[in-house]
């Protein structure tokens, strides 16, 4: 039966059962629909229009799942802030893999759907604020053209969850091309069974890297492929000033999608050391440290794959090291290419890097707003505003103009390139906090308004105005909480 358009094909359950536990979400008292992503549903070939709001809420709370779903929680491990831990989905259930009309395989997952065998002492639930935060930021990332998990729905449960205070409970329905993480491979490797890692590798290659099926050294080619995707992803994050906040290896998806929106936030004033997360005391996951951490996480993946890279362990280590050590150069080249698009530069010149870093240095010194500065530069003509009157900026601007004149393409093309790389709007943290507060108090209009502004982030328009200013000093939010 094709209930609401669902076409389940649960390939993950063909893996050895150590990789998951079959179990149903725990029903909740009084589910109520908060938001349904109609556009996403339509693009997945799903249609819930025949359901009443109440029936929709029962579906997206897990009180009445489609008959063809087979829910399970995943096993995985992870390095959290550098320390290895056994984890697993402590409050998430995958309903199954849905095959879309254009034959894409997508995991449909609940977050906040009750305790599982991996919950340890935690309650298995989630609060409304953090689920709406994931909803709005993941959808903003998608609109920004950044690989990400998506959000299909949020319901409230009618039950309170206790964090520091009592908060309304909620469940998010998350969509991902898979939930296989670096930590899934670490889990397999920690079982001390090479065959288990190999089974997972073959499965993952089938799902994410089918081109590698015939590769001579599958494990090594896979490592390179994951590394390439991560480098691309981090470059995107750096482009828009996104700080993930908890880049633990269990939060790094093999697919190259951004996953797990906890204490993440976008930077306002440019400062490479920016950290928002309240639990990141050492700045491990600061803005500028993200590429370094990505490489560190890839090294953990490499370790898990070692026995498959070569039977001779010394040879395996040598090959893995060579691969992982190539990350900085790989990343740097991609970053430079991206920064050239932010400045409308066509072709490559050796002085480009200096031009870019001088602008960034000036921005850091003057605490210039990252998003607005690049957007101002994307307009035709010299930007106006007090900050741009300084001599240091004028000197840089003259150098940039000279470089633009040496472009292989006309200025119109540069402006177009810049406007498509430099968003006019991002989900600024103070605005996100503001709309979550009103949503918690029962008013969703500000949430929906911001969501709608974020749908087309590269298009200037009047409706963006309320969301474009950096926070005034009394509005600034310095810390974000996992709050979960
Ligand atoms: P996160 O920091 O969200 O990636 O979560 C890390 C681990 O803790 C994952 O295995 C989660 O499933 C688990 N977890 C987080 N919050 C809860 C909760 N409220 N109840 C049970 N498990 C949780
Ligand atoms: Mg996680």
In short:
41% of the residues lie in helices and 13% in strands. With 484 residues, it is α+β, with helices and mostly antiparallel strands. Among the domains are: 2-176, no CATH class; 345-419, no CATH class.
List the topology elements.
Elements: E1 20-22, E2 32-36, H1 38-43, H2 53-60, E3 72-74, E4 77-80, E5 83-86, E6 92-99, E7 105-111, E8 126-127, H3 128-143, E9 150-162, E10 166-176, H4 182-190, H5 194-208, H6 218-240, E11 242-243, E12 265-266, H7 290-309, H8 313-325, H9 327-342, H10 352-366, H11 370-377, H12 391-405, H13 411-419, H14 429-440, H15 445-453, H16 465-468
Antiparallel strand pairs: 1-3, 2-9, 4-5, 6-7, 7-10, 8-10, 9-10, 11-12
Helix pairs in contact: 3-14, 4-5, 4-7, 6-7, 6-8, 6-9, 7-8, 10-12, 14-15
The structure holds adenosine monophosphate and magnesium ion.
């Amino acid at each position: 039966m094709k209930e609401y358009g669902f076409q389940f094909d649960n390939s993950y359950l063909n893996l050895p059962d150590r990789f998951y536990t079959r179990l149903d979400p725990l029903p909740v008292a009084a589910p109520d629909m908060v938001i349904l992503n109609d556009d996403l549903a339509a693009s997945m070939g799903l249609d819930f229009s025949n359901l009443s709001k109440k029936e929709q809420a029962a579906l997206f709370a897990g009180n009445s799942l489609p008959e063809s779903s087979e829910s399970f929680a995943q096993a995985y491990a992870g390095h959290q802030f550098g320390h290895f831990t056994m984890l697993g989905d402590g409050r998430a259930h995958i309903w199954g893999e849905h095959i879309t009309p254009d034959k894409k395989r997508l995991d449909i997952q609940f977050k906040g759907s009750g305790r599982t065998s991996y919950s340890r002492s935690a309650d298995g639930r989630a609060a409304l604020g953090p689920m709406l935060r994931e909803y709005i930021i993941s959808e903003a990332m998608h609109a920004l053209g950044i690989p990400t998990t998506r959000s299909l729905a949020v319901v409230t449960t009618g039950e309170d969850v206790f964090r520091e205070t009592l908060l309304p409970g909620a469940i998010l329905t998350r969509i991902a091309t898979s939930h296989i993480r670096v930590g899934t491979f670490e889990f397999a490797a920690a079982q001390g069974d090479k065959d288990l890692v190999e089974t997972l590798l073959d499965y993952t290659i089938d799902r994410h890297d089918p081109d590698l099926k015939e590769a001579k050294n599958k494990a090594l080619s896979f490592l390179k492929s994951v590394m390439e995707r991560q480098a691309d992803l981090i470059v995107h994050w750096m482009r828009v000033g996104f700080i993930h906040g908890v880049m633990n290896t269990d939060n790094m998806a093999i697919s190259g999608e951004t996953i797990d929106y906890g204490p993440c936030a976008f930077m306002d004033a440019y400062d490479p050391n920016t950290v928002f997360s309240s639990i990141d005391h050492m700045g491990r996951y600061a803005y500028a440290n993200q590429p370094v951490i990505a490489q560190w996480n890839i090294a953990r993946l490499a370790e898990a794959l070692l026995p498959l890279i070569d039977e001779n362990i010394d040879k395996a280590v040598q090959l893995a090291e060579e691969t992982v050590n190539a990350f900085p150069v790989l990343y740097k080249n991609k970053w430079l290419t991206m920064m050239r698009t932010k400045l409308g530069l066509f072709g490559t010149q050796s002085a480009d890097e200096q031009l870019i870093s001088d602008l960034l240095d000036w921005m850091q010194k003057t605490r210039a707003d990252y998003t607005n500065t690049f957007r101002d530069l994307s307009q035709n003509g010299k930007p106006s505003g007090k900050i741009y009157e300084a001599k240091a900026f004028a000197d840089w601007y003259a150098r940039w103009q000279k470089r633009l004149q040496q472009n292989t393409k006309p200025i119109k093309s540069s402006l177009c390139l810049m406007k498509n790389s430099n968003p006019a709007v991002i989900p600024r943290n103070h605005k996100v906090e503001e709309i979550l507060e009103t949503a918690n108090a029962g008013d969703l209009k500000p949430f929906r308004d911001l969501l709608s502004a974020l749908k087309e982030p590269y298009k200037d328009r009047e409706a963006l105005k309320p969301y474009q200013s950096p926070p005034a000093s009394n509005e600034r939010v310095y810390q974000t909480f996992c709050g979960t």
